[in-house]
Specification:
By secondary structure, this protein is mostly helical. Helix 3 crosses helix 9 and helix 3 packs parallel to helix 13. The chain starts with a helix and ends with a helix. It holds the Pfam family Zip.
Length: about 375
């Protein structure tokens, strides 16, 4: 992810936080009468920061261990199974966790006026976000393809052996000679996509990178909202079940995102930055929620509209990514189509991921 991408994302998050701080002055609905205990709630919220941070970091790192654990490498069958599980998790996150929250907020009785009650904004924003994700996905892939394969930056594809990667893979020289090494000016390093065609494999690699970046944006957007909501709560009865559920939620999402990052074959430094950014998003959101808990009112029209629209947009992004870039891409892969056993395990893994995330909706 380039410096411009990080700057744009950081600016968007700062704008979100600024708008949320405006919510405290627009209380039109009475806040729920909850069993409030600020001291106990603070302890639970600090515990939530630690547990969610650790769970997210562990989840996103597991797929990346493929660099040292051969069984977890993208070219192995087990990776298809892991990605199917990740797709199920992301799909359930969108349908079971994020979209219902968006619908609830954008149809809240606290939103006065006919426009909110007479138009299905949650579904509309979700649809628009999915279409925009398709356009961004297509345009970004097209842009990177032209950038790498045309003009002065056209790549020079050569067959060569890379002793360092060969030692990491633990494979023979003959196996490693099948890898094609792509040299570009845009990427200061070497890409080693598997496959017989350098251009085709490099194009796939670029697409995986676009997928992982767009997916992280979708996950980060709703993670901030989740964190602020938990951090702003002062009811231990509300925080306790949320803490456990969100810990597992963050772990499973980390596995999903980590699988995509691993397949994108980013440089180690880039992959670590993306992993760190994901791991910190919800804990930072909780910390912000703690800081504004005395003034923040989640029933104000401003908060409901902002959070509802962002949740709906996140659900559209996640639905598109799960169905198009994860499920369709892998389940229609000739390798899976020709392996009945792999299809069986992948379908079971998809259902398991979706099922586990759906069960968590009981608490979060």
């Amino acid at each position: 992810m380039t410096r411009h991408h990080w700057a744009a994302l950081s600016l968007s998050l700062l704008l979100l936080l600024h708008l949320l701080t405006l919510a405290h002055g627009e209380c039109t609905c009475d806040e729920e009468s909850l069993d409030r205990d600020k001291t106990a709630a603070l302890r639970y919220r600090i515990g939530a920061i630690v547990s969610i941070l650790v769970a997210g970091a562990v989840g996103i790192v597991i797929p990346m261990l493929g660099k040292v654990i051969p069984a977890l490498r993208p070219e192995r069958d087990i990776f298809f199974v892991v990605k199917a599980f990740a797709a199920g998790v992301i799909l359930a996150t969108a349908f079971i966790h994020v979209f219902p929250e968006a619908y609830e907020r954008l149809t809240s009785p606290c939103l006065k006026g006919e426009v909110w009650g007479n138009f299905p904004f949650a579904g509309f924003v979700t649809m628009v976000a999915a279409i925009m994700t398709l356009q961004i996905d297509t345009l970004a892939t097209s842009y990177y393809t032209r950038r790498h394969f045309h003009g002065d930056e056209a790549p020079r594809v050569v067959a060569a052996a890379d002793n360092k990667e060969d030692q990491e893979a633990g494979g023979s020289g003959a196996d490693h000679a099948e890898h094609l090494h792509l040299h570009t000016h845009a990427n200061q390093g070497h890409a080693h996509p598997p496959g017989p065609s350098g251009s085709g494999a490099s194009s796939d690699l670029l697409r995986h990178r676009v997928i992982s970046q767009v997916l992280e944006v979708g996950i980060v957007a709703h993670s901030v909202i989740i964190g602020i909501a938990l951090g702003a709560s002062e009811s231990p009865k509300t925080i306790r079940p949320l803490m456990g559920a969100l810990t597992f939620h963050q772990f499973f999402e980390g596995v999903g995102l980590g699988s995509c990052i691993m397949q994108a074959r980013f440089k180690t430094s880039t992959a670590l930055v993306m992993a760190l950014f994901f791991s910190l998003t919800t804990p930072v959101g909780i910390a912000i929620g703690i800081g504004i808990s005395n003034t923040y009112n989640d029933s104000s029209p401003t908060a409901l509209i902002i959070e509802g629209i962002l949740d709906a947009a996140s659900s559209g992004i996640l639905i598109y990514m799960a169905l198009v870039d994860l499920c369709a891409a892998d389940f229609m892969n000739p390798r899976m189509q020709g392996n009945g056993r792999l299809q069986l395990w992948s379908n079971a893994s998809l259902l398991l991921g979706a099922g586990l995330m759906s069960v968590l909706a009981k608490w979060a």
